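quick one, 230 residues, struct below
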Amino acid sequence: MSENSIRLTQYSHGAGCGCKISPKVLETILHSEQAKFVDPNLLVGNETRDDAAVYDLGIAAKIDGTSVISTTDFFMPIVDNPFDFGRIAATNAISDIFAMGGKPIMAIAILGWPINKLSPEIAREVTEGGRYACRQAGIALAGGHSIDAPEPIFGLAVTGIVPTERVKKNSTAQAGCKLFLTKPLGIGVLTTAEKKSLLKPEHQGLATEVMCRMNIAGVSFANIEGVQKR
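---
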């Protein structure tokens, strides 16, 4: 089978965020009887299920007014094209930093690959797509980790910085706030249709174009006084 005829979406049981563990099951997994370690410098942890964790560098590193953002995001193929899959996965991870109001500064890759089913050349195309997205964001793909896995996965762990007073959290949205969508709704419908070979010709590439668009608007909104995060 040639590389051009391979459909990556057929090598995963789900697609994109559809592979996430359900919140109810995740609560069971994360439940712990151990005493919670409390760090006053950790401004955003897992309590609000935000897009990323935020750590105040003021005390720890004596860098007043600046916090570091840390996030990781990866998933299984959401499109068939390897390069586009890499771009989409990387863009999704980097955009977590923008969603918190910050600026990305570095990324490392996460790759799981079924080496006995898919060639390393295809994996290279995936990582090239991720590298392209990082370059668009103005950051280096500085390293990563890979494993032989039964299904392909790709994503990034991204580090960013943000002025501490500009951190945006899920928990700050209030009733009556106006919503501004930085991307259209319905992308999941298109990607599911593609996986099932039901996508109409006129819709080919539409979802990919949107998913590869860096969500830089998020950090722009973060600098506007009074703006809350969803």
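The longest helix spans residues 82-99.
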